[in-house]
Design a protein that fits this description.
122 residues; alpha/beta; 5-stranded parallel beta sheet
């Protein structure tokens, strides 16, 4: 069974780019446009890993991560934050919600793929 990755980002271009590369690597990809939808999709799809943007409409990624981590069936799902926010305060908050990785935009797709593989396949 291929590993399932949920990408939650309000930027359609980023969703498309990551989907394309992850699918080439053999992952199944599901998408959400904001944090609120991301929480709903995560509960429904039970992904193996979640890539979350921080700044999004309706619900930010930090709040979404908190809700996901407090939902028992998803509490151990790794979260990789992918965001334009570079502030140390944001990284601290990401660590508080037990995110496994934090990558800032602009990003190298190869680095994101490498982090995902490290989190899922090691």
């Amino acid at each position: 069974m291929p590993k399932k990755i949920l990408i939650v980002d309000d930027d359609a271009g980023i969703r498309r780019l990551l989907s394309k590369f992850l699918e080439r690597e053999g992952f199944t990809v599901v998408l959400a446009e904001d944090g609120l939808e991301g929480v709903e999709v995560a509960k429904k799809e039970q992904p193996d890993l979640i890539v979350l943007d921080v700044v999004m409409p309706r619900m930010d990624g930090l709040t979404a991560a908190r809700l996901i981590k407090f939902y028992k069936p998803l509490s151990e799902v790794p979260i990789l934050f992918l965001t334009a926010k570079d502030a140390s305060k944001e990284i601290e908050l990401a660590q508080e919600v037990r995110a496994e990785c934090y990558i800032t935009k602009p990003f190298d797709v190869r680095q994101v793929i490498s982090e995902i593989k490290g989190l899922l396949l090691d």
